[in-house]
Amino acid sequence: MQYLLKAEIFKLFKQSKTYYALGALFSIELLILFSAYYQGTTIIDLLLENLKQKFYFEGTLLNGNLLIYLILNTLWFHLPLILMIVVSGTLTSEYKDRTLQTIMLQPVSKWKYILSKYLVAIAFTLLVVGLLAISSFGLSYAFFGKGDLVVYLNGLNFFDATDAINRLQWSFLSGALSMVFFSVASLTIAILFKEATKTWIVSAFFLILSNILLKVDFGDNWFNQLFFAKLNDTWQYFFYYTINWEQVLFNSILSLVYCLLFMGAGIYWFHKKDIG
Amino acid sequence: MIISGINLTKYYGKRKVLDNVSIGCAAGEICGLLGANGAGKTTLFKILFGLITPDSGQVVLPKHSIKPIGGIIEKPALYEYLNAQDNIHLFASIQGLHLTKQEINANLIKVGLPINRTDKVENFSMGMKQRLGIAIALLNNPTCLVLDEPFTGLDPLGVSSLRKLIADLAEKEQLAIILSSHIIEELSKLCHTLYVLKEGKLVNAGPAQQLIAENTEVYNICADNIKQAECLKNYQVEFKGNCAMVTIAAAEVPHLIHLLDKEQIFITSCTPELSMEKLFETNRSCNIY
Amino acid sequence: MKKIGVIILFQFLCIGLSAQVVDADLLKVKNRLDSILSFSTQLKLEVDISFINMPVKKAQMFYTKGKRVKFSSDDFVMLPKRGLDFSLNSLLEYSFITVDRGVEMRNGKTYKAINIIPTDKRADFSIATVLIDTKLKRVMETEINTKKDGTYLLTLQYNTEAKILPDKVIVNFEIEKIRIPINFMGKDTELDRKKMKAAGTKTGAIYLTMSNYQIKSVL
């Protein structure tokens, strides 16, 4: 099994398209960082409008922490989109080039093979989120420094610099779990559709649908609690003044369950299907 | 028989792609599968490999072997963004083989590939890709090698050198090799046994030379002054330049050559022209077992 | 005639004099405050506004007589515009008159209430009411009706009887609840129309706790 994993990692990093994807992600991150900075003053002014009448402000809210928060807000659409393309590509390219057939002509277990693809996809996703987190923290602090964070979430929440860093780190972790879910889903979609373009379209559709359904309120019932689309917003919970750890834990475990379900379904289908 | 497929039948929807087909090959033997495009050759091979399951029948492979059968389906499928060494290393590692650099080079040399080329496989010619495909198929020492239309896309030089490689592998490594093609000339020079597939059915099978002889009614005899031959007047002949297409039974050919020789007509070549219609004629019994 | 003229003149003088006269107790407090040349103190700020969650903030405050108050802080701090001027100078900057409003009770104690009404248009407030502890000669409460920034109510607390600078100040004010567009950053699933309509003006407070005063005064 470890040889399959090594082989998958080798293949992933030998392909130029992986580096194009990484390059795109970092460019987008830089773009967001600087556009957030230029927009930052307007945002803060808008948030603090009412308060300006009564208060002076000492210190600046337009600092690295706010910019990381703004990056976080936009990250969870374009990041899964690119991740889904790369991850699903690890399987669709093998269908297209028929190397999957060559592999299956060797004494390789089918379910182990596809499981190794899932595991490498998950590892890659975590790596990418980790790198984005480190770079966004690094760049934001380097250029804009640390400071208090203000977030509008049912009221104005102000966080101390250290508290803010903590919460931002947790958010990245939570977001990473969401990204793992989408990566796993895209690989399962690739197993179903095999062909690259169809897989991209269905994956993108899945992502967009998830984002739309996120905003729809199904009422305070079990569906709203358990529906997978609702779980992708878990990172926001870290910006309520008091963190509802129970809810966060519940959501995270549920996300993991969904990941395992998608993964299990994918492995089952792949194992059952004929190759070629 | 090291490898055999017994009474294999496969449907794709309502269409019967394979109808009760049996095929087998022994160690050191080269078996050819002849059939037109769409006859079911690739499907049969996929069943032998275990890539698809037959609706009825069974495949018998050598037991106690990590990799009983290796081969190529359609074209060789390789990782085009990797070079030859990386390809071999990758395919070896996933089946638990740890090859040193020397061992990888030995694999390349065995199939006649250069060991000093480090550029990506996408730059390779079709012939080189075929060889690399065979090298990968031979990883883990299978006892059978199955090649699906291996001569497709090769130039004449490529065809002849690949033919030599396959013959060497059968003889030296005692592999059972099954080849498929839709061009008889490619198979006739190489194979010991021939199977003929038409529309999913096995219509003919037997030792290659015997099958060719049984189904050859016309011989193409060439000589400088062939048109002047008197003995040819006894046969149905069609003249084309210095060659005569003579309708004659195989057994009578040596006698005809002798007669021509007596007339001072010295032949430069005598080629059997296989009758495809006869070869592919259905309603015959094929008893290879 | 002469007698009437003198009486009228005297009355004018009296009126004029009383118009210029600042309440004596207020003056005593002001003089006491004026004796401070400069001070610095550590500030602890707690915000109590319904739609704001903020941790306790720390800052340093520096006062030099005749100059504007300065602040320094490592964090981001919100400082109320009013309530940080302990010297009364902001109220007494421009010409004003005082009106004695009698006494008022706070927590069982009696304090003198004085209105300060600026007569100069440049003043930024219309009227202020100061509650003075006449015995201890210090300000207990100030209510300022500013022209543009609403009303502030400052409550000052002192730990000992001798202190002139407060240890705790509570600043109460009115504040409008913020209205932010729906799609703006953050989790936006909770759209409570009723709450939004009931927004309007609310009261909020800031608690300032002072410690470690370093005072330089005229002896």
What would you note in describing this structure?
The complex is a heterotrimer of chains A (276), B (289) and C (219). Chain A is mainly alpha-helical. Chain A has helices at 2-14, 16-52, 64-97, 99-104, 110-144, 161-193, 196-215, 222-226, 245-272; strands spanning 55-58, 149-152, 156-159. Chain A has one domain. Chain A is built from 9 helices and 3 strands, in the order ααβαααββαααα. In chain A, a hairpin with a 3-residue loop joins strand 2 (149-152) and strand 3 (156-159). The mean pLDDT of chain A is 89. Chain B has 289 residues and is an alpha/beta fold. Chain B folds into 2 domains: 3-212, P-loop containing nucleotide triphosphate hydrolases (Rossmann fold, 3-Layer(aba) Sandwich), CATH 3.40.50.300; 216-275, Alpha-Beta Plaits (2-Layer Sandwich), CATH 3.30.70. Chain B is 30% helix and 30% strand. Chain B has helices at 41-49, 84-94, 101-110, 126-137, 156-173, 184-188, 208-214, 253-262, 276-279, and strands at 3-12, 15-25, 30-35, 56-60, 69-72, 144-148, 176-181, 193-198, 201-207, 216-223, 236-240, 243-247, 267-274. With 219 residues, chain C is an alpha+beta fold. Chain C is built from 3 helices and 12 strands; from the N terminus they run ααβββββββββββαβ. Chain C has helices spanning 2-20, 24-34, 193-197; strands at residues 36-48, 52-53, 57-64, 70-72, 77-80, 96-106, 109-118, 125-133, 138-146, 151-157, 168-176, 201-217. Chain C has a 10-stranded antiparallel sheet. Chains in contact: A-B, A-C. At the A-C interface, helix 2, strand 1, helix 3, strand 2 and strand 3 of A face strand 2, strand 5 and strand 11 of C. Strand 1 (55-58) of chain A pairs antiparallel with strand 5 (77-80) of chain C, so a sheet runs across the interface.
